[in-house]
Every structure is written in structure tokens, then in C-alpha cells.
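Response to reviewer comment R2.3. The reviewers asked that we include at least one raw input/output pair. We reproduce the pair for Citrulline utilization hydrolase CtlX here without editing.
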Amino acid sequence: MKQTTNTILMIRPVGFRMNEQTAVNNYYQKVLENVLPSTVNAKAQEEFDNYVEKLKSYGVNVIVVSDTVETDTPDSIFPNNWISFHQDGTVALYPMFAENRRLERREDILDILEEQGFLIENVVDYTSAEASDVFLEGTGSLLLDRENKKAYCALSPRADEELFIEFCEDFEYTPVVFTANQTVNGERKAIYHTNVMMCLAETFAVICLDCIDDKKERKNVVKQLKEDGKEVITITEDQVNNFAGNMLQVRGANDERFLVMSQAAYDCLSKDQINKIEKHCKIISSSLDVIEGCGGGSARCMMAEVFLPKA
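Raw output as returned:
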């Protein structure tokens, strides 16, 4: 099993804005004062296009699908929350916390991938859990160590433990469960997505251990990572607020590995942290200020990794 892929699915926004339905438990979102919605969307499109160009310039195969104007889907730019793709040709569909995010799930995206020569053998659909207010938001909630068959999940209103265990049974992953918190107005509250505070690469992991308040859980997460030979590179809660946990390792031309992150994430890292990462692979960074500010998500959230086999 491969941990990284050369093919990424990305959704170009048409009505991007701050999603009021997700803001209730995504504490990274901000309202940009005195900025027209059309300006916000235009800026997000510009950031998106520059980001895609940058990835392509390094040889990453990016499949861009445009969002539709018919649905009000302000967060469609983050497809990794509703879909994941697996090497045996399986696609998983996930239950989403915000009602307007459920409209992001589009069957035609599977058709587009098949047209590109990818094989889809099976669809595992967890979305009926929404009727019971149970959620598990794709690879935002689940961090998959595909090589070592371990799945890491920080429980939150958007990541239900029972459904996570069900996923692990279906896909044959060993579950690693913990709670990750952030300080909001002096209170510790669950971080909405695991991939905001942690990134799993082939030979290393970037993680904010300070977010895991329970010492036993923290020790277990470190033990699991080290068992699999990964170097643990720690970041601070302040760096998490700058999206330094929201990174993804991808393959570019000639199978070269890159760690992709936003410019804000890169700028908040120390020299030492950058050196540690660059021992493993090069870094690609791109400015995503408006997308991060309004969307409360960053570089990793925008990429749905395609691991499907080719026909």
C-alpha cells in the first residue's frame, strides 16, 4: 500500500464564503469585515488557481472540477471531507455535520474520474448516519496511515467514535482514538478535524502534542507513530492556529515527494522544524489567506487524494 499519491482531486469554488453552519464548531473561521461576498469568492478563486498551478509545476496530477452554481455550497473547496478513494477501487462517502455541506456530494465526480481512466469497484456509503446526527468527515476526521493500516482520529462533534470504528472494520485499519483540544476564550474545546493538528507522511508525522490533553492518549499516539518508524515533528498550538498541522505529502514528477502547506503555515514554522521536514522531502507552499480566513481550512483540506487503480 502506498501512503502518497500523484493524483489529487480539487473543486474550484463558485460561491465561496464563510459558512455560517460550520462556524459553530470550527473556531478558525473569521468574518472578513467590509469585504463583499463577490470579492471574497474572486480572491478565493485566485488563490485556488495559483495553488493548482504551483502543484502542477512540480508534476502533481491535479483533476480540477468546478463547483456548481445551482447549490449553495460555500465549502465545496474542501472535498476531502465527503469522499475518500482507496487502492482497491473503493470509494467512501461520509456523513457531514453541516446540512449545506451535504449538497457537496456529487455522483458526477465519480463519472469524471472514470472518464479519466480510474476504476471504481465499490462505494461504501456512511451518509445515512446523518439521520441520527452522527458524523465522520472523511480524511478531515480520519488520518490514514495506508502503509501500516492505522487510522488516527481525534473525536469531536464531527468525528463519532462508533462510526470511526465501523470504518476501521470495513477498511481493515487499526483505530487510534484520542481527543484533541484547542483553547477558545479560555476554554478547552474539541478541535473540529484531526487533520488541523496532525499530518501523516511516509517517514514522519507533524503533530501538535499539546492539543492532546490526556497524557495516556498522547503517549499512545507517539508510540504508534514511532512503532512505524516515523519521525515525530512537533508543532505548537499557536502554529496550529496558522494551519501548520494542515499539510499533505504528495508525489510530483519522477515520484519525488513534497509536503504541501499554505504560506501562512510555512511562515510560522521555525528554521529547525523546516530543516527536519526537508530531511524527508521538499516543501511546496502557496498563499491561501482568504480561503483559510473564511473557510477555516487550508492546503490539506483542499486536496482529495485519488488512490484508485487505473483501468
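The longest strand covers residues 7-12. The chain has a mean pLDDT of 93. Further pairs are available on request from the corresponding author.
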